[in-house]
C-alpha cells in the first residue's frame, strides 16, 4: 500500500472513511469572499478547476458532463422555454447551456456571491465561453430565495437550481426545503420545470439525494430522479427534475430530433442515449424512494457538516 504520496494534492475528504486525491500542478489564485473561499488550481488529470470552501465544484475536462445533465433535461421537458432562471451557477457554464436553446428570450442568473462570479468570469473563460456577454442574460446578485419569492406567479418556464451543497453555516441550506421549492413552483408557468443538483448518489452517501427527491415529490406534480457519473468528483451525482402540468421528459425516441431542432451549438455528452442512461437508476436508489424519509423543511433543513456527506 502506497502511503507516502509526494507533491501538491487536492484532497476531498467529504465522505466518511474515504479520500479522493487530485494532483495539483499549479495553484493559480485564492480569494476570500464575504460568503466563501474561492480557489483556482490546475490539476494534472482534469485541467483548471474551481474550488469553493475546499470542495471541488467543476473542472475543465469534464464540467460539460455535469452542466449538460443539469440543464437539458429540464429545457426539453418544456414545450417552449422562453423565460429561464438559473439560481447559482457562478462559473457561467450553466447559463452557457441554457443559452444554446433557440427559444430562450431571457435568462436571469441569480448568485449571492458577486466576487465568485467575477472570479469565474476572469479565470474560467473556457467554462462560460462568453455567456456573460449574451444580451439575453440578466445578472442579479442577490439571495436566490429572496429573489424567487419576489417573482410574479407563472413568470418563468424553467428554473435551474445550481447551488453549492447545503453545508452547515454555508449560504445554501435553506434552498433545499419544501418551502423554497414551493416558491419556485409558484413562479413557474403551469407547464414548467425545475431541475436541482442533488448531491452524491453513491451507495454510502445518497441520503441527501433521496431526501431532496422526497421534498420535490411533495411539491411538484411529477418528479424524475437522474444520476450521472462525474469523473473529477470521483462519484455518481444526483439531479432531480420537478414538473408541473404537461411538462415532462419527452419520449427517448424524440430527444435527438428535439436537440437538432431546438439547440444551437455542440453538445459533448447529452443526447437520447445519455438521457436513457441517466434515468436508469440502480436498485439501491430506487428502493430508497418509497421509504420513511421526510421532506426537508425550513424547520428541518439539510445541514451537512464540512467533511461529511
Give a concise summary.
This protein folds into two domains: 9-59, Spermidine Synthase, Chain: A, domain 2; 63-288, Vaccinia Virus protein VP39 (Rossmann fold).
Average pLDDT works out at 92
Ends apart, CA distance between termini? 26 Å
Give the count of structural domains: 2
- Number of H/I helices: 10
Identify the CATH class of the largest domain: Alpha Beta
From the coordinates shown, what is the CATH architecture of the largest domain? 3-Layer(aba) Sandwich
Give an overview of the whole structure:
The structure is a single chain. This protein is α/β, with parallel strands linked by helices. It has two domains: 9-59, Spermidine Synthase, Chain: A, domain 2; 63-288, 3-Layer(aba) Sandwich (Rossmann fold), CATH 3.40.50.150. The chain has helices at 63-77, 93-98, 114-123, 125-128, 144-149, 178-187, 207-217, 252-262, 272-278, 283-288, and strands at 9-15, 18-32, 37-43, 47-52, 55-59, 83-88, 106-111, 137-141, 156-162, 188-200, 222-230, 235-243. Strands 8-7-6-9-10-12-11 form a seven-stranded mixed β-sheet, sandwiched between helices. Strands 1-2-3-4-5 form a five-stranded antiparallel β-sheet. Strand 9 (156-162), helix 6 (178-187) and strand 10 form a beta-alpha-beta unit. It is globular, with a radius of gyration of 18 Å.
Present the secondary structure layout.
Blueprint: E1 9-15, E2 18-32, E3 37-43, E4 47-52, E5 55-59, H1 63-77, E6 83-88, H2 93-98, E7 106-111, H3 114-123, H4 125-128, E8 137-141, H5 144-149, E9 156-162, H6 178-187, E10 188-200, H7 207-217, E11 222-230, E12 235-243, H8 252-262, H9 272-278, H10 283-288
Parallel strand pairs: 6-7, 6-9, 7-8, 9-10
Antiparallel strand pairs: 1-2, 2-3, 3-4, 4-5, 10-12, 11-12
